[in-house]
Every structure is written in C-alpha cells, then in structure tokens.
Amino acid sequence: MVLAGGKSSRMGTPKAALEWHGATLLHRTVAIAARATSGPVVVVRAPGQDLPAPLPAGVLVVDDPQEGKGPVQGIAAGLAALAGRAEAAFIASTDLPFLHPAFIRSVLHGLSAPGTCAPDVCLPVARGYPQPLAAAYRVSLAQTAERLVKEARLRPAFLFAECLVNRLDDAALRADPVLAALDPHLDSLVNVNEPADYAAARARPAPEVTVQMFGTLARAAAGAAGRGPRAVRAATVGEAAAAVGLPLDRHVAAALNGDQITRDALTPLAAGDTVFFMSADAGG
Amino acid sequence: MPPGSPEQDAATRIGGYFGRTLVVDASDGSARAISLPETVLRAYVGGAGLGAWLLHHLAPAGADPLEPGSPLAFVFSPLVGTPLTTSAKFAVVAKSPLTGMLTDALASSQFAIAGKLTGHDAIVITGRARDLSVLLVDGDGARLTDAGHLAGRTAAQAEEQLRADLGRGWRIAAIGPAGERGVRYATISHDGRHAGRGGLGAVLGAKNIKAVAVHAGAGKVPAADPQAVLAAARDLRARSFGPATAKYRELGTLANLLAFNAISALPTRNFQAASFEGAEHLAEHEHGQEEPSAGIEGIGGAGGSSPRNVLRRVARSGCASCTIGCEHIYRVGGGRKTRVEYENVFALGPMCGVSDPAGVLAASAVCDDLGIDTISAGGTIAWAMECAQRGLIDAPWLRFGDPGALLRALTEIGERRTPLGILLGNGSKAASQAVGGGSAAFALHVKGLEMPGYEPRTLHAMALGLAVNARGADHNRSGAYEADLSGDLDRLAGGDAHVAAAIETEDRAAVMDSMILCKFLRGVFEEPWPEWAALLAAVTGWDVTGAELREAARRIVLAKRAFNAREGWQPADDWLPDRLLTEPLTLPSGREARLTAARLRSMIAAYYKARGLDELGYPGPASDPDPHLPAPQRLCGRGQAQRPGRDPRGPLVDTPGRAGGYWAYGHYCPGKRGDGNAHHR
Fold first, then answer.
1. Which class in CATH covers the domain with range B8-214?
2. B258 part of contact set with chain A, CB < 8 Å
3. Is B134's pLDDT higher than 90?
4. Which of A46, B60, B294, B557 is most buried as measured by Cβ atoms within 10 A of its Cβ?
5. What angle separates helix B374-389 from helix B427-435, to the nearest 10 degrees?
C-alpha cells in the first residue's frame, strides 16, 4: 500500500510525480511493492488528486475521505480497501526511492515473528526514527484507524498504543541475512523531503544488478562478454537491456530473479537483482 | 451434414479442396470416396478440424482404438500445395490408444503435398490387413502391397526402401518397430518428422500397415485467387526471416532449455523439481562451440561433460515449403547426427535426471529408430525410475541420472519382450494402474498423455491449458505458456486473465492446425485472425472473416470435446496430477510457487463457462448445436463407460435437479451419465 496523498510542502512539487529513471517515484514505489508481495497494490491519494501516469497495471486507487487528515486516515482507507483481499499490508510513503523488495518482505515477516503473540504491526525503528510509513500492518486494524481519525487522534503513535507492535531496530533488521546482503545500510528508509534530498538521491549510481541472456539474445548481444552473467548498473529493466546492447522490443522478455516476467522497460530494479533476458517467442 | 451428400459439386468448385475423402478398408484393399460438403469444409477447414469431424462420423462409438473398425485419418488442408511458407503439413487423427480419446498429430513435408494431390482432402484407413502391408494411394485410387520385407525396420529404413522400390515421386509415411508391436505411444514418421503424440503409430500398426505411400495424380486444385496467394506468400516469406522466428531459425526449440531452467519451468526428475543442475551440460551449444575435427563415440558418464561430450550443432534444415528452417541437427563427438528439439532433450534429459549429452542424444536416436514419442517415453521412464527408487517396481538398475538405464529401458520398450518393456510400452497411466501400490501418484499425465516440458506450478495459464485440452497434457494444442511468459500477467497467480489467454491460444492452435500453418510462424502475425482469414479467402474464394474463423476454432475445440464425451470422458479427466497441486516449489527469489486445487478448479469452472459448457464440462445448452455433427442419439448410445474411483478434483459443482444425463448438440440425453454425476458429489 502506498500513501501518495501528502502535501509535499517542503519539496514544492508533488513527490509522487518526481522523475525516477524514466518513470516517477510513485511508479517505482508501487512496482517495488508489487514485486515484493503476492497481493494487490493499493495507492491511497488525496480526494481528487491527480496521480502521475503511468502506474503499473492492476493497481487499486482509493481516495482519502478528507484532505489533510494525515497518515492514519490513509492507513485506514487503504486497509479498508484490502479487507477480504489480504491479511496484512506493507505500507509505504511514496518518497522512498531506494526501497528494496527484501526490506518489504523482511518487515512483513516481522508480523509472524516467533516467540511473540501475533503482532498487529511490525514497525522498523531504524536510522534514528520510528518508520510508520515503511511498516507492516494487519488489515484488521482498519476499523481502529478509522475510529482514531474520527476522534482526531491523527498520529500513528495513537494507533500503536492500541495494538501489539513488533519493533525492529537496525540490528534486528540486519539480522535478516538476505536484507543485510542486499540493503546493508538500510537505504530502503531514505526518504526525500526537499529538493536537495531528491537531487542527492538522483545523483546516486543505479543499483548493481546481474544480467544474463539466453538463446538468440545471447548471440545477438554477446560481444566479448558473451551471454553473461554480467554485472551492470541499472535502475530499470530498460536500463539493464541498454547496458548490454539489447533492444527491448516485443520479442524480448525479462525474468527478474527467475520470478516475475515482464516486458515493461520501466520495471524497477534493486541491488542484487538478476535479470534474465530471453525470447518472448518461447515454447514450441 | 452426412458424408456423401449432394453438396459435393459445390465443394469441388471452391479453391483449395477436392471435396472428397478416400476411405480405404485395409482388410481387403477396397476403397470408396465420400464427398465433403462445402458447409463442412468451411466449418472445420481441414487438418485437425476436419479430422475431428471425420472421426465423429466414421469412428464407431466406444470402439477400442486398436480394433480394425477404428479409423485413422490422414487429413490435408486447403493451404497445402500453395507457396505459403510452412503450409506443407498434414494431420493424422484417430482415437488414441494411450488416452482413449481423440488425438491429432501433425507432421510436415512432401507427404502432405503428394497426399493431397492424390485428389483427396483426407485418406482414412479402417480395417486390418491380413499381412504386414503398404498402402499405396495415387490418382488411380488405393491398393495394398506386401511389406513383409520391411518388418522390424525403422521408419527411415522403410521409407528409403520404399522409395527405391516404388520409384520417383512417391512419398512415404511409415511406422517403426514400436508401431508394429503396439507401443501405445508409437509415432508415424515422414522424412524424419513424426506425427508424434497419442500413439497413432500403434493404430496404423494395428491395421497391419507398415507405411502409407502417396503419389500425386493428375488432378489440380488451384487457389481461387492465385495472385493474392502469391502476394501473401511473398509477404509471409519476408516476415518469416524476422525476429519472431529468430529463435527457431538460429537455435531451434532447444533454446528453451536454459531459459526455462532459469525461470523454474523445466520439469526435472519426474516433476520433483523445476530446475535442473545439469541443464548447462545439455546446452553448451549455446556457448557457440565449434564441431571438433575428430571426436569420440559412445556414452559418457552419469553427469558432466568433457570437451568432447558436448551437443554440437552440425546442420540445419527445414520442411518442404518452409522458409524458417527450424530443424537443427546435433551430434556428440563423432557420434550419430540426430534432430534435436527442446521436448526430447527435456523428456530424456532433465525429466529422467540425465545430464550426459551423449546419453540424451543416443536416447533421442533410439526413439527415432523405434518410432516412439519422446515425451511419453521420457515421462513413462521417469515414472518407472521414481517407482524403482521407491521400491514399487523391481528394477533397481533404473535410476534417475543414469543414461545407460535410460537406453536399456527404451530398448526394452521397443522390443516389447520383457515384462518391464511391455509395462512401459503402455504409458505411465496404464502402467501405474497395473503396478498399483500408490504408483499412480508418480504418473505425471493428463488423460493418459504424459506431460510436456512446461511446469504448471510456475505457468498457471499453461496449467489450465494442460488440464482441459482434449488431447491431454499437450503443449501444441494449448499454447497458454505464451501468456505466462509474456509478462502480461502473473504466471504464479492464475485467474480470469489466464483463462482468457488459455482459450485464445487454444483457439489459435485449433485454426493453425486446421488451415494448416506451422505454429512457429505465429509470432509474425500482428492481427492473426483477420490475417489468417485473408489467406483462407485467397485460397478458397470464400468471404471468410476473422470472426468466422474464431467461430470455427471454437467449433473445432468443442467437437473434440464432444467426441471425447462420447467415448467416455469424465469430468475428472480435466485435471492435473496431484503432485502438481500438493507439492509447492520455491523459486530462486524465495517466492513460493504453488498451484492449489482450488485455484485450478476455479480456472476450470471459468473455462467451462466461457466455452459454453455445462458445470461439469460437457457440451451443454449454452453450446450452440452443431448441425454438421451426427445426431445426438448416436452419441448417447455407447461409449459411456464409467471409471470407478474418486474424483481427484473434489466436489467441483453440484447439479441439483439433474438425475443424470448430458447435453449433446442441443439435445438432452437422459440417464447416460448417471455414475459420472454421482461420483462427483
């Protein structure tokens, strides 16, 4: 679930629409969430807010009932929309340009932490702050959150006070070996609030990913390095294809980490990803 | 419309057809021509579609496929003989001895052209010759000659001998020794290409026919608009050199191997895994290694590959009238050259755990020589390997990963002398029923047809396609994997989009197999339905549209299903093996790939609804009655044998108020399906 209804006051322009490697920040956040989870992705926006296109296919958009009520209202609206569709949701703000799928999976896993009564919230407390907009919530909290909005208790802390919270500090997060390997500095929690933050984030090099090609693609783009695996820097599937000189047309498909298959050049990549390029004219 | 109706004259006026079928009784060599009305040709097109119609009319209901009375049809198409690329194909259609249902298999090349130019759109064989014979068909009709000297020969040897015996212009389709001996997945082969699936070779063998030889007669069948056909042929030819066919042209279907391995879609060790640690050994040709000037022969070890033990492409060729040229010939070292496809490498390699290239290539060559379907052979042997591992059959030598064991099993199947060889020659379903002891759980088939190399747990659209297809577990009649691999849907979360994709690809296959065009050409069509309609219109002169072709596709799919229903198909037959529904896979990403029974059940229900079938999958009141098929009372009378046992799908649906019976072509047939309904509750 991605909360996109913030005012972006300090940025001076809607953060959801900030350019990110050919797409927008919202597109990246939504697509990363889709990669990390098996359920639907919900975007919660301010009433009537224009969302930047394109969004990945299948995204469910819901409106905050009122403007300016803060994140608890967005949490309530999004969780309500997920009722019957999911048991839990990872909730992110739109301004996390380095959010990693491994971080989402790790935090969601915190809802089933052994040795505890099933928590309602898994809340990272890392990089110096609680991170309620990079946390996991049970969908059953929707009604509680709605009541808090009606009571004008609009801070997430009020919600946490009424449920069981599993707090994960930096060390606890890094105890997940997959997350520690793929996001050792917990850059998933880096957010951009001001133009300078955005400029700094945009100036970072694209993540390092591995590319491997099969079949005729390996021959077409082989060069000296052959079919791979090759390490390249790329923030999207399109950038990865370009890095190995591969035209990404309708005859080419990409499989991310042997899992999701896509032909969308804007599909975001994260550090440690492996991209398999293969003929879309598969089978036979 | 029954055969022999007065519409014959109309049929002979249209382009692309002769408007008649030759029916040969192998018992005495007699033959008769029956007319094919234009309405039927337009409704069923040709090839697999026309074959289904012929089976409805000519196959006695409930007959054993190996009985003399069961027909086997070689069916041609309106496009055969035109300059359209990949059009030189023919279909072979019969009731399968492996599944007890309709099977149709396609092969290519000059047999298709010469066969059609005998003056017939189909050649149907019934009866059983007294001695092993060759059926000769030319412009003068049909006759039988002795084939005693061909007994036990491979199909290639028989073909070569007959070319020498008969002289110039004769084209031959033959069976190998497995077909003569009744292996239930024996093939019919022409010029090294097999009409492979479902045991059509066994059907021909049961008729004591070693080969069918055809020679063009004097008759011609011009296209209605030759200039338009020529222009289309030039256009298609140009497109066939484009990127959509690059894979087939440059590497062949074997290019799938590493890609499927990377995405956990490569069935391994009887579907116990979906990726194979030895895949790289079987795909070192992708590294572009050159053929050595000298090599070694024989079989390597149980795994690994030395520099000499590598599959090397040594030649490439194509069918008649084809500009793609997908056939890639491989060999290991100085060994025998063999045609290799993804499916035979999958079935004889990963499926059996064999990573030795020389072993897999040798096994492929043995299958060619015996004349057996590599997919069913590999699937059946993989079942036996798992049974041996679990102590369910007494064959401790039959181990996963051992190429020597693979070759020995194939030899025993072909010789059909040992108990194991006889057992495995019946296919995994029948073999598991004979062995019992829970061995059916390791028989990976649908309707008795062994699974091809597409992992349903990671390809959910394909899972549906495999479950509901009339021929059984088959990747050529359902190309739903295209949707899974397209990136347009989540291949691990089957739903409505997957159902729609499965139907679309099944329809496309039905038309391509009937017109006939090679499916390797499918990617060159931007708007396939209107483009195919234009091709058919140019050949026939019909004002056929894409919408009409879509309707024909649906009709053909339903005709096959209706034939199966007549022959005893049960709702439980539209299902996947339990292993695929109870043993999830873990992808390299860490994500779990699981196909649940509930998800599959839901997709099947949606498929039935979209097809206009009833809740159990029978042609129902929502299916348009097809006036071209036989009257319903003939369908209700026989072939409703019920299979005992539990429906593995569980309580799919209930049909309150229905005491039994089913809809066939718009007529309700009461009481003929009672047991089938009962055991679903």
1. alpha beta
2. yes
3. yes
4. B557
5. 30
